[in-house]
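re: ur question from earlier - yeah i can do the single chain one, its not a big deal. heres the input i used so u can compare w yours
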Amino acid sequence: MNGATSTVASARPTGRVGRAAADDNTVSSVPKGLRSDSDQASGSLRSVGTALDVLECFAIDGSLGVSDVARRLGIGKSTAHRLLQTLATRGFVEQDRETGKYRLGIHLYELGHLAQARNTFRHTALPHLRAIAAATGYTVNFSVPDGADLVFIERIETGEGGQVLGHVGRRLPLHCTSSGKVIAAFNPAVDQARRTAGFPPYARRTIRTETAWSRAMADVRRQGFAVSHGESFEGMTSIAVPVMQRKVAVASISAFGPTDQIVSDMDRLRVLLATASRQIAAQLP
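and the output i got, formated as tokens:
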């Protein structure tokens, strides 16, 4: 409703953070001058991968020191320091002069805005999200799958839902959201990715077993929509419908708010979301 705003999508790590990475300080038995081009290229790619792992650390915490990054990635402090300094020279991270800790830099923020601005999928959905948020007063999300997770690429934040989601990242495990469940139910590859990753608990009512997941998938396919009651946030409920392309779910649109309000408004929301979903799908190439 009034004050509804769209916010920048950000991603939460998909399990890479915390993975041990190769330390560039490891001594090689092969003299540098005798290493093949492929060996050098492989080393460069490892360094790039580790630098990306460093950036992903900041999706969880706002600021980190050199020791924090080194410990999380299983690399030497000198390597972590060198990577952070390199990223800082390019504006991907910046250092707080008082604390010495690092945070994401303005250049990464610029690139994120460019990615969002150039996302035609998001632009197609945005007017429909705004209309639903204005008509209902609920927070409305537009989401796409990424491996075993769900990424919210657009969100119109209103009411209590906006207050809750405004403090968390834009990536959640598929199995704890209505959006994730509804995509997986109509996208076999996404369903399998979640089954392979397992079902770790996220909230008190989160699905935790493959049997429960299979039962939920059957229910969603029968109904054509998914509901999440306190499976990601206590006292909050969401309802989602898939956005289909060539008979496969490629995205979802959902409404999120306090459980008592969403439950009492479920029939109206289901119709609004389904109508918007069909209109968005009709505009896809």
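The first strand starts at residue 5 and ends at 6. not sure if urs matches, ping me
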